[in-house]
Structure formats: C-alpha cells, structure tokens
C-alpha cells in the first residue's frame, strides 16, 4: 500500500501543486494557506535549499492499538496517536546567496510520504486556533543549516494537521519534504514565494 502526500518532485523550488495524475493527494482544506496569503513566483532555480533526514532509530515496535487498523478505523472518534519516531531533518542553504525564510509560519510545513505494507495517512482530529501565523523572517546565509526534530509521524499545518501510521509489521520508506515560504521582493508580509526541498528517503521497520 502506498500513501502519497502532497509533495514537490525533486530538490527543486516550485509552486506546490496538489494534483498529480493517477494519484490521490492527501491534502485537506485546513492545510491550505489562508486566502489572504499570496504565493507569487519563484525564489530561484534550482532550489537554494537541500534537505537531509537523520535517523537515530530505524526499528520500532508496532503498537497493539494500530495493528490491522484501516483508514476508516484511524479516522474514527478514538483516533490513536501516530507512531513515535526519532528523526531529525536538516535544511541547508547550498546557494551562493542568503535566503530569508518565514520560520514558524503556517506556510512552513513538513509533508510526509510513507510507503509500506500497512501505510495509512489521515487528517488529525485536533482543534487549532484560527489565526494565521506569518512567522518570523530568518536569514539563512550560504552554507548555514537549521534542524527540525521529528518525534512522531505527525505533519502538515503546525506539524499536527495530519497523521501517518504503520499498521502492519514490515519495512517502510519515509520521504520528508520541507515546504517553506520566503518573502517576495518588494512585497508585503502577505506575499511570499514557495521554496521546497525533499530529503532522500529513509527506511524504517515496524516489528511485533
């Protein structure tokens, strides 16, 4: 079974599309940028950012409350927490120029693509406050990196709008996409440009 989540293809900088032929995208309304935010143009080509995923632990015990569960089960009223993991995503500015990113913005998200024998992705049943978070402009100079800790297979808007699960023992592949926003030159705080970087996939294992 393969769960496809809304990602960009390759380490390229592009407007993120939520449609790909022959695939079902797990993209929900609560993950879309607020209407007042305008994503215009590109920062540069190719992407000024690269992503790398570090794995502290590769093998995890499959919890009893997840074994054999279907998507319908996991979307129910008693939604279990997603599996805990020990991962770290490193984003590096590999270009020759500084780039400013809106860190902590609602537009800054991680997108997970989990592939495996029991991979399931569903919207999280969790309440969010309604304000739109613009984030803090943060300059990343050439060669500089920052890291994002990943403690659960929870992602999307504010890191909590979607859950990914493994529901059967076996080997899984996880691909993580960093999707950030950079201020548009001479634009307002509501005008940003989309920048993405996809980390090479890593292998994880669920056992009983």
Describe the overall structure.
The protein has a single domain (29-207), classed as Immunoglobulin-like, CATH 2.60.40.10. It contains 1 helix and 14 strands. Strands 1, 3, 6, 12, 13 and 14 form a 6-stranded mixed beta sheet that branches. It starts with 37 loop residues before the first strand and ends with a strand. The model is unreliable at 1-44 (pLDDT under 50). With 208 residues, the protein is mainly beta. The protein has one helix at residues 71-74; strands spanning 38-42, 49-55, 59-61, 84-93, 99-103, 109-115, 119-123, 136-140, 145-152, 154-155, 162-166, 170-183, 191-198, 202-207. It is globular.
Short description:
The protein has 208 residues and is mainly β. 2% of the residues lie in helices and 43% in strands. Mean pLDDT is 79; it is low at 1-44.
Distance between the termini: 19 Å
Please give the CATH architecture.
Sandwich
> What fraction strand?
35-45%
CATH class: Mainly Beta
Main sheet overview: 6 strands, mixed
Average pLDDT reading: 79
Strand/helix succession:
EEEHEEEEEEEEEEE
Q: Percent of residues in helical segments?
A: under 10%
What is the element layout, followed by pairings?
Elements (H helix, E strand, L loop, with lengths): L37 E5 L6 E7 L3 E3 L9 H4 L9 E10 L5 E5 L5 E7 L3 E5 L12 E5 L4 E8 L1 E2 L6 E5 L3 E14 L7 E8 L3 E6 L1
Parallel strand pairs: 1-13, 3-14
Antiparallel strand pairs: 2-4, 4-9, 5-8, 6-12, 7-11, 10-11, 12-13, 12-14
Features:
single chain, 208 residues, mainly beta, Immunoglobulin-like, 6-stranded mixed sheet, 3-stranded antiparallel sheet, 14 strands, globular, disordered N terminus
């Amino acid at each position: 079974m393969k769960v496809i989540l809304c990602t960009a293809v390759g380490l390229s900088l592009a407007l993120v599309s939520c449609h790909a032929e022959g695939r079902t995208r797990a993209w929900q309304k609560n993950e879309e940028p607020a209407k007042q935010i305008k994503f215009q143009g590109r920062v540069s080509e190719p992407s000024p950012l690269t992503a790398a995923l570090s794995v502290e632990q590769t093998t995890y015990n499959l919890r009893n409350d997840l074994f054999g569960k279907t998507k319908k089960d996991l979307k129910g009223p008693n939604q279990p927490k997603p599996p805990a993991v020990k991962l770290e995503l490193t984003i590096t500015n590999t270009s020759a120029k500084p780039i400013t990113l809106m860190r902590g913005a609602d537009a800054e998200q991680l997108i997970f693509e989990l592939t495996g024998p029991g991979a399931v992705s569903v919207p999280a049943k969790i309440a969010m406050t309604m304000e739109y978070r613009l984030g803090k402009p943060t300059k990343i100079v050439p060669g500089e990196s920052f890291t994002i800790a990943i403690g659960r297979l929870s992602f999307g808007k504010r890191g909590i709008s979607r859950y990914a699960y493994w529901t059967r023992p076996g080997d899984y592949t996880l691909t993580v996409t960093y999707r950030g926003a950079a201020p548009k030159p001479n634009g307002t705080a509501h005008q940003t440009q989309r920048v993405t970087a996809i980390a090479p996939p890593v292998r994880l294992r669920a056992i009983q």
